[in-house]
Amino acid sequence: MTSRERVRRTLNFEEPxxxxxxxxxxxxxxxxxxxxxxxxxxxxxxxxxIYDNIQRLAMVDEEILNRFHVDTRxxxxxxxxxxxxxEAPDNSWVDQWGVKRKRVGYYYExxxxxxxxxxxxxxxxxxxxxxxxxxxFEGLSVTVKKMYDETEYALISADSGGILYLATELxxxxxxxxxxxxxxxxxxxxxxxxxxxxxxxxxxxxDTCGEFIEMLWLDDDxxxxxxxxxxxxxxxxxxKPRLEKLVSFIKTxxxxxxCYHSCGSIYWALEDFIDVGIDVVNPVQVSAxxxxxKKLKEEFGDRICFWGGTCDTQRILPFGTADDVKAEVxxxxxxxxxxxxxxxxxxxxxxxxxxxxxxxxxxxKVADFGRYPIEC
Length: 376
Description:
Layout: H1 3-11, H2 32-42, E1 50-52, E2 57-58, H3 62-67, E3 72-75, E4 92-94, E5 100-104, E6 107-112, H4 120-125, H5 134-137, H6 140-150, E7 154-157, H7 165-171, H8 173-182, H9 184-209, E8 215-219, H10 232-253, E9 257-261, H11 270-276, E10 280-282, H12 293-300, E11 305-307, H13 316-319, H14 322-336, E12 342-343, H15 356-369
Parallel strand pairs: 3-7, 7-8, 8-9, 9-10, 10-11, 11-12
Antiparallel strand pairs: 1-2, 4-5, 5-6
Helix pairs in contact: 7-8, 8-9, 9-10, 10-11, 12-14, 14-15
């Protein structure tokens, strides 16, 4: 069975020959420091390239992807024509949206928001980057078609978007959550502007390569460690209908599945995600409240697929032993894999300091134990 067939069957709630494996993509990647340690441990040479400047995520070489039996390959658009990554002497840079970020330890944190004092007219007049800038999509159709024709991997569109995340980056979390109560018209105005932006962007992206991809990412974080990031009633009033509009539009352009990334405790939102047409949820943050994998599979496992959640990246992967990692993998596969609808990946990106032995133990255990029928 090819990787593409394996992923397709899984996303259609069928059991393939083994659980598909994802690595090196949107939130299933690896920090450059952890990747350097892994390459050194495996005695593999090569220059490390970065595809996410905020989280400093490394492009994973084909040699490593093949070694770990990875079934997916991620595709990315280009930067817009009027922007490029350029770091200032103080280790800061400004992204295409006008958000300023600065290096803090291993990562870049947001330090200035362009709409931090915005009124509704400011939001109306703020110039966003062009979502259909041809530079973003230059060469993409040829590249993706070639990958589709010449490989057997499942191609995943890894350029994500979300109606919450970018708004909080533009305004800042404190103002955003305050205005959500005291100046809701401003939040709704910005949300609608970003909804329109994403519909234009995804429309052009999917016209370019939608026929070749198996899945497309969306990205918003609706959960924190202990519960929702805002009152569920507000989510359902403001965001749910707009998310449904975005998902419905995407599905007019492609047969690909839609995956929604949302960290934290999101048990409360899964029924809503299903309602708006989300096919796949990522991550399954097993350390958060109400995110018991057995319960999630029993309640939702025939209606939404789970992507990730195969090993806790907060405690077990960085601080456990290789045996701890193997035991965690076995439990999560037993909980989530029966009946299909599950792609194996770590809960989130592999962070700096994770021992290479644990990374190797993770992928080896998934490949060995994740063969159907699952024997628990």
